[in-house]
Design goal:
This protein is of the alpha+beta class and about 220 residues long. It has one domain: 3-Layer(aba) Sandwich (NADH Oxidase), CATH 3.40.109. About 40% of the residues lie in helices and about 15% in strands. It contains 9 helices and 4 strands, in the order H-H-E-H-H-E-H-H-H-E-H-E-H. Helix 1 packs across helix 7, helix 2 crosses helix 7 and helix 5 crosses helix 6. The longest helix has 25 residues. The mean pLDDT is about 95. The structure holds flavin mononucleotide. Flavin mononucleotide binds next to strand 3. Flavin mononucleotide (FMN) binds next to strand 3.
C-alpha cells in the first residue's frame, strides 16, 4: 500500500473546483506529524489556510504560482526553530520518558543539539526534519485521492527574500516570529482530470551504486 502511494504520487498543480474538506486535510496533517525527527524534537507547525486573500498573498510570495491561489486548501509548513529551545526540547524528551540526566546530556551536546552550534546549524536541522513530515503528508494525500504540490519557492529565509516586503507580510499574516520559517506550502486540491501531470525520474543506474560510487547494482 505504501509503495502504491509512493509510485503514484506526483505533483498536481491544476485542480477542479471540488473542495478538500477539513476532515481530509486533518488526516493528511496527522500523517505528517507521525514522521520521525531528530531526538523526536518535531520542530514543525502546520497552518491550514483557506482564506482567499491569504492565498493570493502566498501566491504572490511564491512568484505568482497559480496552484497556491487555486488550491482548495494550503498547508503552510513552518520550520519552527523554537522547538530546540532548552525548555521546549526538554519537555518533549520528558514526555518520552527520558530522565533529567539524559535530557541534560542531550541539551548540552553539540552533536545532538544544533542550537549549541548556532543559528545556521539549527535552521539546517529544522529544515531536515520538516521535510520528512511533508513527504509523509504527500503520501497520505495520494492515498486519499487528493492532489498536492510542495511549493518551496516562496519568499523566506531560505530564498533570501524574507527581508522583502512580501516576505515580511507572509510572516505577519501567518503570525510567525523570527525563529519560525515558512519552509514551504503544500497545496491541496482534486486534480483537474483534463490536465493531468506526468511523473518522470532518472534511471536507477544513474543514481544507485553498489559498494562504491559508479559500480553497478546488478
Ligand atoms: C522541497 C521542494 C520544493 C518544491 N517547490 C516547488 C515549487 O515551488 N513549485 C512547483 O511547482 N513545484 C515544486 N516542487 C515540486 C517538484 O517540482 C516536483 O516534485 C518534481 O518536479 C518531481 O515531480 P513529481 O513530484 O511530479 O514527481 C518542489 C518539490 C520539493 C521536494
Amino acid at each position: 500500500m505504501v509503495l502504491n502511494a509512493i509510485a503514484n504520487r506526483k505533483s498536481v498543480r491544476v485542480y477542479s473546483n471540488k473542495v478538500v474538506d477539513d476532515f481530509t486535510v486533518k488526516s493528511i496533517i496527522e500523517a505528517g506529524i507521525m514522521a520521525p525527527s531528530w531526538v523526536n524534537v518535531q520542530p514543525w507547525h502546520f497552518i491550514v489556510v483557506r482564506d482567499d486573500a491569504k492565498k493570493e498573498l502566498l501566491s504572490q510570495a511564491s512568484g505568482g504560482q497559480q496552484q497556491v491561489k487555486n488550491a482548495s486548501a494550503l498547508i503552510c509548513c513552518v520550520a519552527d526553530m523554537t522547538a530546540w529551545e532548552d525548555e521546549k526540547f526538554s519537555k518533549v524528551m520528558e514526555k518520552q520518558g527520558r530522565n533529567e540526566a539524559v535530557r541534560n546530556y542531550i541539551l548540552n551536546s553539540e552533536m545532538l543539539n544544533p542550537s549549541r552550534l548556532g543559528a545556521v546549524e539549527t535552521l539546517l536541522r529544522t529544515v531536515e526534519q520538516i521535510t520528512y513530515a511533508i513527504g509523509y503528508m504527500t503520501l497520505r494525500a495520494e492515498e486519499l485521492g487528493v492532489g498536492c504540490c510542495i511549493v518551496g519557492a516562496v519568499a523566506n529565509e531560505l530564498t533570501q527574500a524574507q527581508g522583502s516586503d512580501i516576505g515580511s507580510s507572509v510572516k505577519e499574516i501567518l503570525g510567525l516570529n523570527d525563529k519560525q520559517v515558512l519552509h514551504s506550502i503544500l497545496t491541496l486540491g482534486y486534480e483537474d482530470e483534463k490536465k493531468p501531470t506526468v511523473k518522470s525520474r532518472k534511471d536507477f543506474d544513474e543514481v544507485v551504486s553498489y559498494e562504491v560510487l559508479g559500480q553497478r547494482f546488478q
